[in-house]
Task: inverse folding
């Protein structure tokens, strides 16, 4: 169970990362859409797991790989935005959010 502080940091980081990906998204995924679906920070606020939804993409691992390669720059941009609210900017770990794909597969199974 996340604390109130963790929830506030989660929502702050999700909002700011969404804006960063809105501006920078075409560099990672030309003609596509990158959505920050969730952010989960550790209890010590040192590590943040960022779940990204990518649409329309065939090779999601390649896109996540290019995002991970730019992880340091993205963390710097995030620090510029939330530096006044947080003393330390958490380390960012990026993951593909495949919950929509799983929901679609379950829906197909139920209909078929």
Result:
């Amino acid at each position: 169970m996340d604390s109130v502080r963790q929830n506030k940091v989660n929502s702050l980081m999700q909002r700011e990362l969404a804006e960063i990906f809105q501006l920078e998204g075409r560099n990672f995924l030309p003609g596509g859409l990158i959505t920050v679906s969730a952010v989960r920070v550790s209890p010590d606020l040192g590590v943040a797991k960022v779940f990204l939804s990518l649409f329309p993409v065939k090779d999601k691992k390649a896109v996540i790989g290019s995002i991970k390669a730019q992880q340091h720059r993205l963390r710097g941009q995030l620090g510029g935005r939330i530096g006044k609210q947080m003393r330390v900017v958490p380390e960012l770990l990026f993951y593909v959010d495949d919950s929509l794909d799983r929901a679609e597969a379950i829906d197909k199974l139920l209909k078929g």
Remarks:
- The chain has a mean pLDDT of 90.
- The longest strand covers residues 33-41.
- The longest helix spans residues 4-28.
